[in-house]
Polysaccharide biosynthesis protein C-terminal domain-containing protein
Amino acid sequence: MIKESTPTQASVAEAPAPAKLPRARLFQISFGVGGVMLARVLGIFTQIILARRLGAEQYGLFNSLYALLNPLIILANLGLDNWLLRQSTDRVKLNKSVSRVFALRGFVLAGLLLAAAPFVSMRSPEFTPHLIALACAGIIGDLLVGTADTALRASIQVLKASSLQILVAFSLFVPIWFTPSLPFSTVVIYRCIAVALGFGLSVYYLHGILRWVWQPRQWINTIGEARFYFVSEVMAYLTLRVDLFLVALLLPTINSGIYAPPLAIINNTFLVPSITAQILLPMIVKHPPRSPLYRRVISLAIGLSILYGLAWFALLTWYSDWIINLMYGSQYAAAIPLLQIMAIIPLLKSLNFCWATFMVSNDQQPLRVKLQTIGATISILGNFVVIPLYGLHGVAIINMITEIALFISYGYGAWLTYKKVMR
């Protein structure tokens, strides 16, 4: 772990900004990206193995179960991930906030899941009460592990944060790899075990600062401070993930199995830009926008995002059939045209991460929230209209249109932010 003092605003203003990234920071960025990428790659392979072994019908049930419960995770997140990252400028405040966020999220999510369980059980006879209970337990644990990961990254403890994600991903990958034939209910159990191991490691890593707290008044204050981040996360879910929820809600469960592979491929292309944004935010937020370091990092991120997005656009446009057949098999052939429709999304999303990072690092989260409502509105209304008429093809088209609208909106927001901070 690399320890460093927290600079005050005055010291930052007086000290000359370095022209180059310090070697220690380069190591942190490299290891942070590499470690999380390894965990995500393990997760990608796990989902591919599941899709091939479960088949479209069982895989559809698996995805439908979690798709119906996932909105509750967004509500229980309360926008506290980015809020914690913003506390990274004050280590003492950050340490005090971690326990508060752990307790607050755990109580909120447990209550939401308890209320939603009867509704989920009505969707399919396969969703038995004990299976829903296991899924809910895994979701609660997963959220708390994510909280620990965010706290470690905010403290610039990327070694511990990356090892935490790798442990959870590896613990789920291994039993699935060595179980050739399994129903989707067994996967739910495996997921609970993997999350339990991750939760244990989280407690170990945070044992010096993690405390049991019962502070309802401070919880309310925390929610108030993070309100813009919370609204932003809700808007992001409505923009990017509500499609799978509505597919699981409005169409037969097998449609979730068909739509999940191309959606997973598209979402996995966000891996590099999303991880890079998470790592860069707590680092650049300590520097003024006019500093050479800040401008160098943002410019480099934009340039690499364009190259990265164009490469994915070409690959998904001309080789979608090869990708689907190689990864998932011929039983998912119906997913090929869906992937081709969404091929432009990685390019747009990569640049959107750059615009969002620029806005958030300059305290323009309220502006970002306003812009997100555009994408959320298009996604919700569009999917409600097209799903009954055009099924999965309509969902893919709305997904693409939503991302185009966000690209235009975020670009405008970044331009407004630039004008404000540079004048």
Remarks:
- The first helix runs from residue 9 to 14.
- The chain is about 80% helix and 0% strand.
- The mean pLDDT is 78.
